[in-house]
Amino acid sequence: MTTAAPTLVPIFATPFAVVSISAPADLNATLATLILSRATEQYRDPSAARDPLCFRSLEALFEWDSEAVARLRREMLGAVSAVVMAANCYPDAEFEALGVQARARFAIVRPNGGMPGTTAPMASWCAVYCVAAPSEAPTRADSAALRLYAVRHASMFLDATNSQLRAPFSVTHYVWRPVAGEMAVFPASILHEVALNRAGEDLLLVTARMRFVHRDQQAQPPW
Q1: Who's near 193: CB < 8 A, 6+ residues apart?
Q2: For residues 128 and 146, is the Cβ–Cβ distance under 8 A?
Q3: Cis peptide before 168 (omega within 30 of 0)
Q4: Which residue has the higher pLDDT, 127 or 151?
Q5: How far is it, in rounded angstroms, from Cα 118 to Cα 97?
Q6: Main-chain dihedrals φ then ψ at residue 202, nearest 5 degrees
Q7: Which residues contact 128 (CB under 8 A, 6 or more apart)?
């Protein structure tokens, strides 16, 4: 008797993309100067816990009157749109008719600081852009890395047969190391955090949450 080989397919795949912007050096230098100059009480997010090792701004960065910020906004919206379009079945004309809404903030993760786990509420996509990255820490491989958690496996019973599954079926989490000029794009519902920064320099990030709307859509839930 001959038994056919089983066919394995991933059924709950999650889209994730890393996008590089063009000629980021000058843009990042200007953004870094601007961000560091605005790490003040005026720009601090009052809803975030006070942490001397991590500054989180108000979620109004895209509204700043700055040519560098305007360019960053175009780059981030364009990158996310390209990722979303690649992951969807929309015809080009139908996708281009959608409007995009976005809110963004900056974060400064100082040495020995980190960012706790969170999701991006009332949004469909999240983008994390790296303005400046610290050097690698020899004692911590995931220093200042963005961790994305595979929470859908939280209730699964683990034994010897499913704790060592090969990709893409594995239940491990995902780690992305920020690189200046690159951004990570992923669904906003994914729980993510920034690991402790064990290097001697700051990590500067811009995080945006985004959602797309049909032109005739009458209402959206508030941010």
Answers
A1: 114, 115, 116, 117, 118, 146, 147, 149
A2: yes
A3: yes
A4: 127
A5: 31
A6: -75, 150
A7: 146, 178, 183, 184, 192, 205, 206, 207
Q: Please compute the mean of the pLDDT values over residues 73-93 and round it to a whole number.
A: 95
- pLDDT digits 0-9 by tens, 8-57: 898 888 999 999 998 899 999 999 999 999 999 999 999 988 999 999 99
Question: What is the rounded CA–CA span in Å between residue 35 and residue 108?
Answer: 8
Domains of the chain listed by start with CATH number: 17-212 (2.60.120.620)
Q: Cα–Cα distances in Å, from 188 out to 30, 75, 120, 122?
A: 28, 18, 5, 8
CB-based contacts of 126: which residues, under 8 Å, 6+ apart? 119, 120, 185, 186, 187, 188, 190, 192, 207, 208, 209, 210
| 3-class DSSP string for the chain | CCCCCCCCCCCCCCCCEEEECCCHHHHHHHHHHHHHHCCCCCCECCCCCCCCCEEEECCCHHHCCCHHHHHHHHHHHHHHHHHHHHHCCCCHHHHHCCEEEEEEEEEEECCCCCEEEECCCCCCEEEEEEEECCCCECCECCCCCEEECCHHHCCCCCCCCCCCCCCCCCCCCEEECCCCCEEEEEECCCCEEECCCCCCCCEEEEEEEEEEECCCCCCCCCC
Q: How far is CA 20 from the centre of its chain?
A: 13
What is the percent of the chain where pLDDT is above 90? Answer: 72
